[in-house]
Amino acid sequence: SDVSMSSLPGPMQLHVEERIQGALSPAFMKVTNESHGKHSDESHFHVYVVSQAFDGLSAIARHRLVQGLFTREDGSLKFHSLRITAKTPEAWAKDASAPEAPRCTGQGDGRGVPADTSGL
Asked: Maximum distance among all alpha carbons in the chain?
């Protein structure tokens, strides 16, 4: 196989993809594991999602909608970091770009601490 094991999605990434697919029926979706430590840590994700569900919502409301899919009852994320690019199909047709990831300082970023997938 030409695909290395480290490039295959892990259980947390699959969970992220399934939740977005089920909740938002996206026209386009790309979930990227941006974890800085081992790929298997699954601590940092970028979600790029295009959905009609975002029509009429402000940017912050779109972000809250996506983040809410991965938030525990106590308000914390199921993993360390979630970067979101959320667009309507109309906005995506005009500009399909996504902002670059900010430089991570690595402080308190979950490096080396795998995401807890026990509750998936």
From this structure: 44
- In the sheet that holds 28-33, the strands lie side by side as 28-33, 44-50, 81-87
Query: What pTM value is reported for the model?
Result: 0.79
Reduced to 3 DSSP states, what percent helix, strand and coil does the chain have, rounded to the nearest 5? 30, 20, 50
Q: What is the pLDDT of residues 37-87, one digit of tens each?
A: 676 788 888 999 999 999 999 999 999 999 999 888 888 888 888 899 999
Q: How far apart are CA 109 and CA 111, in angstroms?
A: 5
Separation CA 97–CA 120 (nearest Å): 31
- 9-38: pLDDT as tens digits: 888 899 999 999 999 999 999 999 888 767
Which has the closest alpha carbon to 70: 34, 51, 103, 44? 44
Distances in Å between the Cα of 29 and the Cα atoms of 51, 71, 74, 76, 104 are 9, 19, 27, 23, 23
